[in-house]
Amino acid sequence: MVRPLSEKILLVGGGGREDAVARRLSEAGAHVYSFLKNRNPSIISLSRDYRIGPETDPAPIVDFALKSGIDLAFIGPDPVLETSLVEDLRSKGIRVASPDRSAARIETSKKFMRELLREYRIDGNIEFANFTGTDHLKEYLQQHRDKEFAIKPLGLTGGKGVKVMGVHLSGFEEAFSYASSVIGKDGSVLLEERVTGEEFSQQVFTDGQRISPMPVVQDYKRAGEGDTGPNTGGMGSISDSTHTLPFLSHNAREKALKIMEDVVSALRDSGNEFHGILYGQFMDSPGGIRVIEINARFADPESINVLHLLDDSLPDILNRIADGDLRKSVRFRNAATVLKYVVPEGYGYAPKPSALAISQEKPEKRKFIYYAAVSGELSEVEQSTSRSLAVVGEGKDIETANSECEENLKLIKGKFYVRHDIGTRAMIEAKMARRP
Length: 436
Ligand code: AMP
Ligand code: GLY
Hints:
The protein is built from 14 helices and 22 strands. By secondary structure, it is an alpha+beta fold. It folds into three domains: 8-105, Rossmann fold; 127-193, ATP-grasp fold, A domain (Dna Ligase, domain 1), CATH 3.30.1490; 198-433, D-amino Acid Aminotransferase, Chain A, domain 1.
């Protein structure tokens, strides 16, 4: 059933991802009500009403939803999926196009994810081991001195808690010391076999049973040009007009989609039916496609690349997700995108926030600038210590989209850092040369 588009939709979250969601919702005629922790000027300007407050405290959000007569809710940030918000909203009769806490464990517990893949014999799993004490950890690392591991806290890290041997950690001592510190903090640590290859993000919409794919995106997590420095929430991202990426191996996308389908059915079968957006992070490794993470939400920045290209009604899609009625496949324009995040100077190390001016002189350019963890006005924002503005370029291929993105970046004035190497011809050519 296609519902009227004047629907009231609650959107939780105030980053670049949520700005992209708010734009597609309001363009399609939905009335957006937002709950966010920062005064994001773009989201606020698109909202009928809004509240500022902590996004992880469900009670005021439920109150706001009830007072506003909300029909449908959608949650952006991962920490919110760990609270009781989705269950609380549903218990008040509000439909939600996001997973409940039990289904969201696919992201909030990396152990749950690895065990689900193992139990249902889903392709792409990797060797992993979980430790709660340093004695066993030491023994394991000593026994596997010839191997390299990715060392991870079990829960959410904002992309920043994972350290990889041979990348961020060299040798046994550093690995043992970091893994021990994670145990000290969380009581537990996950060691995963280190895999190498091109990473890619495959996001899908799911109504609990069916999936509808979005274009593949590649996210650049490292703070520095040439993929150096610490991991961040994501410095930028690219997608191609083919909806896959030219440097991935044959059928990489199809294999990733099969894994996503299998995960959706395993979640359903195990009593954790998942409604919302599932975002798989994959590695195109010499041994095949490997699962790095499965997340229970839109990726940030990758969601902005794909929502920028969305050629369907987002309110309609979210209704269908909530109602278990996602029949048709969702359409996206066949264009390439390059996105670069404008961040405070020192981001990833010691961020120094300042003010940024955003030229409003060319109204046709406004749609390429998405507002993230900032507060203020559309024409002038205060940075926080997180990412500030996602600047997008769209074109017939990645190179053209990159030139557009660089042009659009000129609209921003002030002190900021941006990774200009993302989406350049040199970067794509280097990746093509390494293609399996
Ligand atoms: P995550 O927060 O788990 O997505 O990890 C952050 C980043 O660490 C990923 O994007 C990868 O680049 C890297 N990483 C995570 N797990 C592994 C792994 N098992 N092998 C190699 N790199 C990994
Ligand atoms: N792009 C990384 C994330 O959303 O987790």
